[in-house]
Design brief:
single chain; 414 residues; mainly beta; Tachylectin-2, Chain A; six-stranded mixed sheet; five-stranded antiparallel sheet; disordered N terminus
Length: 414
């Protein structure tokens, strides 16, 4: 064999081996069936335009749409669904909650991969901190619904309270350990150069101030952020003195496909700066979640808008807040390709090559230096991830990374 051909074959073999080694490994798998419900009022009675059907579709509250996750008590996890059925107008009977789940991942072929749904925390505003009308405005408990806020990310604090990032404002919400809103939602200032943060705000089309405004004929609205493009992901530094909420969409005036990562000072409850911008691989992509690795490094889920066989990009990248390119965008390092996962034990039942092709993958949590938890938002009763006519379940993955993370103090399950 000529030397040139031998070198080419050797190089091809090396690249093949490198490609195999680079695939993240599935080491745990669990599934919560799509048709899982919790106690509560009937739901799903409204269409996307807000019209009301004669009867609700569901007799209770679907346990679905998980968009944020953190550790819970006794080895459990706390998952937070988003606003419910996909829009402000069809989710007024979907109650905003956080659920405690116990996972028994399938780690061997003989395992079960079960998920147990435990208690839930109901978000509510009995003290009337929300300064605009909500669905349950004149009820004693003022339970919050998916028509009031589109909650997408949260950070539990050491005092038991929660900071929640949402998309309709976009706002940050501060709630107590028992789910009460503690203060008025914090609006998002436009901290870009030349803006006055005292009056210039970032607002989506669903912001109450935008909805209440009536632009003159022919004039544009006052929104400067796309719908459902607010704080999809949020993490904190290891001391929990700073929050880092990440927008899902580009603010008008910014370069297309770049997303602002803000810094929020918890003690003063004020935004302090735009740390940098996350640049999407394609402007049409979205981010799904942000997770803390250490004070400088954070994981970000990025995804395209497709599912099933059409899905082309579902990845997790690592960014370093101190490393920006010349344009002010974070330098990204790929950590996991969710469409190229090794499953040598066939834990998920799809063979040795596992794909996680759901349209919305919105949960990532660092378990230890070598392992992360990833889960999807199943958009109940949406389909497409596992088949055109199959309701997407909630799937939970334990993934072993190829290279260990450098964890900050307190990060991971201790």
């Amino acid at each position: 064999m000529p030397n040139s051909r031998r070198k080419i074959l050797t190089l091809s073999l090396c690249l093949s081996l490198l490609g195999t080694a680079a695939a993240t490994e599935l080491v745990g798998y669990a599934v919560l069936p799509a048709d899982t419900f919790a106690a509560g009022p009937a739901s799903g009675q409204f269409a996307g335009d807000g019209t009301k059907a004669a009867q609700p579709r569901f007799s209770g509250q679907p346990v679905q749409g998980f968009s944020g996750v953190h550790f819970g008590p006794g080895g459990s996890y706390v998952f937070m669904p988003d606003n419910g059925f996909g829009s402000k107008y069809n989710s007024s009977d979907f109650l905003l909650r956080l659920y405690t789940l116990t996972l028994t991942p399938k780690t061997t072929p003989a395992g079960t991969g079960a998920v147990n749904v435990g208690s839930f925390l109901q978000l509510r505003d009995p003290d009337r901190k929300v300064p605009f009308l909500i669905v349950n405005e004149n009820t004693p408990d003022r339970l919050l619904t998916g028509s009031d806020f589109d909650i997408e990310s949260f950070v539990p604090m050491s005092d038991g309270t929660l900071w929640i990032g949402e998309e309709f404002g976009p706002f940050l919400l501060h709630v107590s350990a028992d789910g009460r809103v503690l203060s008025a939602p914090v609006p998002t200032p436009d901290l870009a150069a030349g803006k006055d943060p005292a009056k210039d705000l970032v607002r989506s089309p669903s912001n109450p101030a935008v909805l209440s405004a009536s632009p003159a004929p022919g004039a544009t609205g006052t929104a400067n952020l796309g719908g459902s493009k607010g704080f999809e992901g949020m993490a904190a530094n290891t001391s929990f003195s700073k929050l880092y909420p990440l927008l899902e969409g580009t603010v008008v005036g910014d370069t297309a496909g770049t997303l602002r990562l803000y810094e929020f000072d918890v003690a003063s409850a004020r935004y302090t700066r735009i740390v940098g911008r996350y640049k999407l691989e394609a402007p049409a992509n979205s981010i799904g979640d942000v997770a803390t690795v250490n004070d400088n490094e954070y994981l970000v889920i990025e995804r395209d808008q497709a599912s099933g066989a059409d899905a082309k990009l579902k990845k997790i990248y690592k960014i370093d807040l101190t490393k920006l390119d010349a344009d002010g965008n974070f330098v990204k390092t790929e950590v996991a390709d969710l469409l190229n996962i090794r499953d040598p034990q066939n834990l998920a039942g799809f063979g040795p090559d596992f794909r996680f092709p759901f349209v919305t993958i919105e949960d990532v949590l660092v378990l230890d230096a070598n392992t992360i938890l990833v889960a999807n938002d199943n958009n109940y009763p949406g389909t497409g991830g596992r088949g055109a006519d199959v309701k997407d379940p909630n799937e939970f993955l334990l993934l072993k990374l190829d290279a260990p993370l450098t964890l900050g103090n307190g990060v991971g399950r201790r």
